[in-house]
Write a sequence for this structure.
């Protein structure tokens, strides 16, 4: 009961933060103007193209995950992997980072694979995605350094908040106390049932981590990694052509906007709501797009991407028991 209550409180806390940021961004906007532009001045054909790229990225992610699972001695059906990935995205909209656990749980249930091993593959997958994002960030810094510097100058609170988190005495103190506790009670901890259970789980977890070394088709794996991020970029960039005020944005400017938005998605709020909008609006303003127009762009781009995840996530939850009824 306590666990459920904590999950509910966590959900409400993150959701409130996201909604509050969203409200701060849009509270002074002319709603009638936004409605008018969305109704009369948007080429929705490009939105459908964006959603198509989004689906391709999810399929590619499912294929890549299967490549990581195969060395574990399992060959899950691609359909089950895809449905698990979509359920994971849906759960991320409920509680940040819950999606990784959810998709492992779904696949573990229907494909009879160790949850801990699957979690290990997801950790490796996330590390690789972080490296990919860092490479893209480096490309943006090198090619668009002046614009990035301008963004930090105009929003010094971004740098201040990052530094305040890293240098927080509460964080440093908590880390020190944690290690002191581990050292002082290490013998008692090793004898506990919890420690043995964690040790057993970590053993399977390491198998998932080491599975990457045994991937047979590493070239295919790298191709899907590049393809996933290309689709992520394109699903945002093509939306620029939906509006007259963003149709002239260059590919490099689009890359800057995409990378900054990706960091907004990292924020601990459901689906990056609020944080993603802020980063996109600020990035577009660097390239001459008025913030009032950037807000409309961010609203439509984020809204359609989120709608897709909700629809496919709910459909996946409903379809999973039917496509696996023979195995049940």
């Amino acid at each position: 009961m306590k666990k459920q209550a904590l999950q509910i409180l966590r959900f409400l806390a993150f959701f409130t933060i996201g909604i509050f940021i969203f409200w701060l961004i849009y509270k002074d906007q002319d709603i009638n103007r936004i409605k008018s532009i969305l109704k009369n001045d948007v080429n929705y054909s490009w939105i459908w193209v964006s959603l198509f790229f989004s689906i391709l990225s999810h399929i590619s992610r499912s294929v890549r995950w299967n490549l990581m699972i195969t060395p574990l001695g399992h060959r899950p059906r691609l359909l089950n992997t895809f449905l698990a990935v979509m359920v994971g995205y849906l759960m991320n909209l409920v509680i940040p980072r819950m999606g990784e656990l959810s998709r492992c749980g779904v696949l573990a249930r229907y494909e009879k694979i160790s949850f801990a091993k699957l979690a290990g593959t997801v950790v490796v997958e996330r590390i690789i995605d972080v490296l990919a994002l860092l490479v893209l960030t480096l490309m943006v810094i090198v090619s668009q350094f002046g614009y990035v510097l301008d963004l930090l100058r105009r929003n010094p609170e971004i740098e201040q908040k990052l530094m305040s988190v890293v240098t927080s005495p509460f964080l440093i103190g908590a880390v020190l106390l944690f290690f002191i506790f581990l050292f002082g009670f290490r013998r008692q901890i090793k004898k506990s049932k919890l420690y043995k259970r964690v040790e057993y789980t970590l053993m399977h977890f390491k198998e998932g981590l080491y599975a990457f070394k045994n991937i047979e088709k590493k070239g295919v794996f790298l191709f899907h990694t590049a393809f996933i991020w290309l689709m992520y970029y394109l699903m945002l960039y093509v939306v620029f052509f939906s509006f007259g005020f963003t149709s002239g944005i260059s590919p490099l400017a689009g890359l800057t906007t995409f990378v900054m938005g990706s960091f907004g998605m990292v924020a601990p709020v459901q689906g990056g709501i609020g944080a993603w909008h802020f980063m996109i609006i600020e990035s577009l303003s660097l390239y001459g797009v008025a913030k009032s127009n950037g807000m409309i762009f961010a609203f439509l781009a984020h809204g359609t991407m989120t709608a897709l995840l909700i629809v496919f996530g709910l459909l996946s939850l409903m379809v999973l028991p039917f496509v696996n009824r023979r195995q049940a």
Q: What stands out?
A: The chain has one domain: 43-323.
